[in-house]
Structure formats: structure tokens, C-alpha cells
DNA sequence: GCTAAAA
């Protein structure tokens, strides 16, 4: 049984080797030759957790192995003797709309997009993976290696998922072991399923009190999934409904800009998993129509966005000021393609003894996306865009219309570009925060269907949205943050398919030159000579490319232990508190990142980011 | 300063 990080990697190696994919347990150079031998086995806290990923055989409804749970035994909320929450799980399933729209008495026969399911797994070979934390559960190679239960497995087959994507191979066992998780995985790699499967499975097999009677107007979900935009919440809800079909697990979505009454009615009918945007959730909490006291699972999608300046106070309010159980009692999972260190530091407030997971291609932005940068003066952008669109039209593809997503900086700019495109004969629509929710959803539908194959968008569409057939992402205005660039171009090249991203660059973007050219280099993209000159000239623009550069992110806890006595980037006092110190204080990487609760006292703060900027 | 998120 693995007792350290290094052992877990070894276990992963074996598992991978036996599965025929001997590159997936790639150990990056900076992690090789770490000797775990000086580490005492760290079993006191974690308990005999990681080795016991169930090997199938458990029937649905049979109690799952108690792997990894002992570490949380103090938590309560796990009281035995409750009725199974889903005791009457076939109640109402006759009325449940078939989200697949296929067989089995579907009342909703709208054909479903199957292209998503055709995941190109060849694109996922040879992917570097980094994990850290105590007793990291080993990855699995197939869905059959995990005991998710018959109902969930059936839905996985309905989704045409043949085998788990890399992030799913690693994240699902970690999550099934009831461990907190900070996961970094490239755009379009299947993160939603990675947190939904364990949540649904956990709710099905867990011993939870029955859903409150309909009379009670306060809904008490067991799981909360937060996301930064309404459309992303809608999308997560749609996916989660497929995964939860006929499992008895009820998924409800709540977001702003739409009438609240229908959402209230849905909540009254019972909810196990609530998918929400922060503003509407706060509203529901204030009205006492939702209580978080039963929350067992908390997932933040696009977690770095959720914890940046604009969102952080609201999230802190929801997670820390309401009635949600604390870290260690609930299970918390944070997912994103990007995870800046300063955000990791904030995020660790919400986590207990968590596993850090980074899964991604070298360079973190997938090299399935061909990235181009063109020097275009502000005044020439429109005609240049028109040239691109003309060329694309000339190359006309058969079958599905190729879609082009154009990102701009401002809402007004989006409107005016849309108007200009339309008046020049290009069928375009736009999505941004000044449009009504109806208009936003209509625009997205029209774009997805190919009816309006050009979508002009602000950053509202930058993250998470899974839009099949986006062939081209144009950064008409570059963002001011390289991470936003990564998310934007990630709207193409999804599910292992290729895509093209073109950026318009001029003097106004000089602060991005360095990070952009570094990112492109890491993704094996051709960097134009003029951009390299810009990058060399740029003084301190942009943000430092993350840590080792090989991953979309690195566990900031590692940096703490390795940063030359800990005084170069952070205050020395900060280093040894909370997460910083490995158990021996000798910089050994394995184990010992433990016991986060307390110990922080807000000791990080002002001075921390300055080293980067 | 921009974007997002409750009316």
C-alpha cells in the first residue's frame, strides 16, 4: 500500500504499465530521484486509505468500501442509521425526462449531439501528470476499475464514454476516497464528469437522511457545484442530468437573469445536487429557500476565476459565512485549467489535507490548437477579420458548418463588431453581460446550431463552454491575462480534436508579449520573430509563467518547500505556517503537507504577490 | 480599467 507520494507514483506506474499506457505516469524531471525513505510512514491521519480502490464487484446499493474515510471520522454528518436518501429512488423516475433523447420511452426526442462523445483518445497519450499530497490514491485505467454502480455505468455508456480521460483516471479515485482535491487539467479534457461521477456515486451509496418533505420550503442539497457564468451552470446541469439519469439523484440549476419562481418550484420538488451561479445562490440563501447545512460535496468549476478579485468575497460568504459544514467535514473539489499560485493560496482556506493534481500536455495549453499571432493595428482589425472570414468561407467545409468565435474586450465593442459583421454579410450574433439572459441563451443556441456561425463574445464565453465544431477562435482583442487567453483558445480543440486560434496583436498588448510567446513555445507553436522581439523588449509585463512551466499548474505547497530556505518569494514566517512545512522540515516532498485547519491566521497577504509583479 | 455575478 502506498504510504507516500513516491510510492503512489510507483503504483501509478505499475497500473499504467499493465494497462499498456506506460507514458501516462510520466514523472517530470524536477520530481525524479526524490527519496521517500527518510519519510516516516504517514498513516496516523490519513488512515489506510489509498490502496483500496474497489475493484468492482460491489453491486449498486451495496455499501462501498470505507476507503479513505477514516481521516474524516470526526466530521459527523455521516450518521449511520439514516434511511437511504434514495430509498424511494424509483419514485418519480417515470416522469424523469430522458436527457439523452434516445430510447427507453423518451419524451424528449430532440437528437443529441454525439460528436462530443467521439473523444479522440490518441490525443491524450503521453500526458504528463503531477500529483502531490498525502497518500494519493492511484489512478485507474478503465471505468470498470471503479465501482460507480450499475445506473451510473449505464449512463456512462449512453454518453459513449469508452474509457476515462486522464483527468478522470486520476481525479475520480481521489474523489471516491473522499479526499479534497485541487485539480488542474487542460481545457476540454473532461473535468465536469471528473467531479460529477464521484458526487453522484457518493450520494447513491451514502447514508443520508431522506429528502425533506415537499412542505418544507428550505431545500437542503447534498452537493453544491458553483460556476462563474450562467451559461456554464446551465451546461453543467445538462451534463449532470445525463450522468444522474435514473439514479434517483436529483440535479437542479439556479442562476440569475431568469425568473426565480420556476427555480423555486424545482427546488421544492427536491434537490440533491444544486448547480448555481453565486449571485442567485446568495439570493436563495437569504430567502431561506436553500440551506447548505447538509452539504457533503462542494465543487468549484473554474475555481481560479471563482476566487479572483471579482468573485472571492461572494464565494467566501457562501462557503464560510453561511451554514455549510467546514473543510474536512464536507468534501471540496476545485477544478480549472489554470491555477495561479496566489489563487492556490486563497483556495487552500477551503480545503483540508488535499491532493493537488495537474494533468496536461507540456505547456498547459493543448498543442492540438494551432496558435497564430498576427500584428494588426487597431484600425485594421475589422478588415483583417474580414480577410480571415473570407478565407475560411473559401475553404468551405462539408457537413457541419465550421464555427468562429471572436473574443473582444468590451460589451460595447461586441455589439458594434456584431453590427458591422452583419452589415457586411457575415451572419453573426453576440453574447455579453449587457444582453438579457434570453438573448444570451438564444445567441448561444443560434451559434451552436450553425444558424449564426460567427459569435462575438466577451469573456463571459471564455471559460468552460463546450461548443462542438468551433474551428477557429479569434482574439480580436487580446485579454490582459495569459490565463484568460488559455481559456479562450480552449473553446476550440476540444475532446481531442484540433483547432485554430488567431490573435491580433499590437502595441497595446505589449504587456502580453512575453507570457504569450512563452506559452506558445511551450505548446510547440511557431513564435513570430517580431513577437519574440516584443517579448525581449517588454520589461515586466504580464505574469510570470507558472513554476516549472511543464504543467498548467504546480502545487504551490511544493514551491514553499523548495524556495531556498523559503525567503525569496514569501515572508519566511509564512513559509512554515500551515501548509508550508513538510513534515521533516527537510524539504522532502512526500507526505507531511497535512493538517491545514487553523495554522493560517491570515499570515499570507499583501507581500505575497509582489514578488511576481 | 475590463469582464462576470441579484434584484
Automatic annotation (TrEMBL):
MF terms per GO, please?
ATP binding; hydrolase activity; RNA binding; RNA helicase activity
**Entry-linked Pfam families:** DEAD, Helicase_C
Please state the Enzyme Commission number of this protein: 3.6.4.13
Q: Which SUPFAM superfamilies match?
A: P-loop containing nucleoside triphosphate hydrolases
UniProt feature, compositional bias: Low complexity: 1-25, 46-57
| Record-annotated Helicase C-terminal domain positions | 368-535
The alphabetized UniProt keywords are:
ATP-binding, Helicase, Hydrolase, Nucleotide-binding, RNA-binding
Q: What is its EC class?
A: hydrolase
Q: Which PROSITE patterns has this protein been placed in?
A: HELICASE_ATP_BIND_1, HELICASE_CTER, Q_MOTIF
Gene3D superfamilies in alphabetical order: P-loop containing nucleotide triphosphate hydrolases (3.40.50.300)
Motif Q motif located where? 141-169
What reaction gets catalysed by this protein? ATP + H2O = ADP + phosphate + H(+)
Tell me the ranges covered by the DEAD-box RNA helicase Q domain, including all copies: 141-169
* Domain Helicase ATP-binding intervals: 172-357
Q: Where is the composition biased (Acidic residues)?
A: 101-111
Point to the regions of Gly residues compositional bias: 73-82, 581-605
Q: Which InterPro entries match?
A: DEAD/DEAH_box_helicase_dom, Ded1/Dbp1_DEADc, Helicase_ATP-bd, Helicase_C-like, P-loop_NTPase, RNA_helicase_DEAD_Q_motif
Q: What SMART domains does the annotation carry?
A: DEXDc, HELICc
CDD domains to which the protein is assigned, alphabetical: DEADc_DDX3_DDX4, SF2_C_DEAD
Looking at the record, which segments are called Disordered? 1-111, 580-613
Family of the protein in this entry: Belongs to the DEAD box helicase family. DDX3/DED1 subfamily.
- What PANTHER family does the record point to? ATP-DEPENDENT RNA HELICASE DBP3 (PTHR47958)
This one is known as RNA helicase
Upper lineage is: Eukaryota, Viridiplantae, Streptophyta, Embryophyta, Tracheophyta
